[in-house]
Amino acid sequence: MKTKKIENKTWNKLVIVNIVIVVLVLAIGAIFIYLPFTNKNKMLRADILKERDKNILIGRIKAMSKHLKVYDKRVLDEGVGVSWLLGETSNIASKEHVEISSIKPGNPEDYGLYTKLFVIVDIASTYNQLGRFVTGVESSEKFMKVESINIKRMDLDDKFEEGSGKFKAFDVKANIVISAIVSKE
Questions:
Q1: 118 near 83, Cβ under 8 Å?
Q2: Taking CA 133 as the corner, what is the angle to CA 130 and CA 134, rounded to the nearest 5 degrees?
Q3: Could you tell me which of 92, 104, 179 has the C-alpha nearest to residue 135?
Q4: β-sheet bridge partners, residue 120
Q5: Which fold has domain 82-183?
């Protein structure tokens, strides 16, 4: 029986030693292998997310730069002055058969990188011609904008005489302020 007890004790010692070795190996593996790689894994995931966000931003920047190229073509280059705006306004008016009574340059306004040019135009036309003229200004290849417009029917003017000229009672006189943007770069 003693031999069985001795065998059991050695067997128990072997089992305990094996269990201790396994636990030590698992502890060493967890401490020196698993935990450092877990932190590294978290850092890599964070880096991947940052990189993905950067790529999204780069894509947005590229898309915006494509749109800006379209708008850059519409901004007038440096050196273009009020004379260009006067000529362009006259061209649009003649194209739409609008009679210009007077056209005066306004004072340019400085906005840092851009300058805003103005012209003040007095015209006489029908409502349809006036609408086409305003559409022509607003849809110009360059940035042109109708800043303000004052319209008055001709028959409401004291100086209007029915049948005296080429205009009818329901034609209009309009005072229009047109602007354009010029780049300083």
A1: no
A2: 90
A3: 92
A4: 104, 177
A5: Alpha-Beta Plaits (3.30.70)
